[in-house]
Amino acid sequence: MTTRDTAFAAGTPCWVELLTSDPEGAAAFYGQVLGWTARPPAPEHGGYVDFVLGDRPVAGMVTNTGESGAPDGWSTYLATPDAAATVAAAQRAGATVAVPAVTVGTLGAMAVLTDPSGAAVGLWQAAELPGFTRYNEPGSVVWDELHTRDFDAATAFYRDVLGWGLQPLSDSAEFRYSQGQVDGRTVAGVLDLTRSPSTAGLSRWVVYFAVADVDAAAETAVGAGGRILQPPRDTPFGRITEIEDATGATAMLSVPTADGGE
């Protein structure tokens, strides 16, 4: 078990959040697939729901009312010591602000940006809640990956605003991929969508959840009302599959190798 009760280093993925039009259905789905329990909605935070593994928060859920026009999906939050200052720096670097920095009770402060490549990304300034407090184990986040249609703009943004170092892994005509690093530690990946014909869609952050058995978890997802978008397969970083829940939110499931991912 990997647990944490202190703030993550700036630029590190520290929280994930599900926007869903069916909170009850999502709670049941992820309960079956990942073993989560949904806490009662918090009225003081607009009905926000925490997912817990055991008694520790691992993700959040917010109801999609349709007002924003955004589809159901997962989003990633990056740690910052000062959400307002990071928002200002992000705007100077070409990002737009979807949600300005706002205090969330005694838990911390958050903001949501659209980076220069068009991907939505959250910011979290920890106070009482450091972010997810269990990770890198079955039922929790094991990896976050930016899929982008403007690789150069995206990597420059996360380097300049979030302090990432960048470690290229591949720069071929078919596959361009770099790892984002914080203090020399790998924290996330960046995939160039324009060089990966099999990977479609808009710029977005993709969340990987660890499971004990990818094939069994994929079957559970189907039984719970979801779909398998990419059948289980082996990669240099572990065995993975892509699933979609009943309302269209997608996520990756993974059994990482010992040296794969963060």
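Second entry:
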Amino acid sequence: MSDLTILLVDDHPVVRAGYRKLIELQPGYRVTGEADSTAAAYLAYRREPADIVVVDLSMPGSSGLEAIRRIRAVDRKARILVFTMHEGLSYALKAFEAGAAGYVTKSSPPEALIAAIATIAAGGKAVSDDIAHEIAVERLSGRKSPLEALGPREVEILQLIASGMTTDEIADALSLSQKTIQNYHSGIKAKLNARTDANLVWVAIDAGLLEMRAAGGGPA
């Protein structure tokens, strides 16, 4: 079985060195590249695509969100984990909207990073325990589910949008025209009073349409 390859993206060399040491202590995990900016990350991925990209949000120039978007633009199957100091669900939602598969805060224990990498490598989505707690609090708030305003097809399309699929991909998956998907997309936003796709991602997470695995172990 071949090693799991990982690209590290962080503007601090000392931080990258620490991540590399931690990751390469795991059997079968190998760091194959490092980058200190969005542009460098994009070039490194184009040169040698890694199985997992671990990226910080705060970097000089453009942010980690732009790195996610640029890498996903050339490879829709790219699996990207955000590892950042930014705590709070709003940051995580923006990352998932951009196409990330996981979000772990740097205040988390080291094993949370390793657990998230493993989950994403297996095709899942992962969040650190602090973000999972925020999701759980929102779900237990007793509010009426916004999904009650949507029909079955709209719920299905919402789930696909929130998972990061493009209009073209959703149209192909459902054997519908791009125009039909665009109309559904607009209608879903209107019914949910959502101004952006980040709002739709939150609705999907809040309603349990996306399974988020807490990096500490169980589902969020």
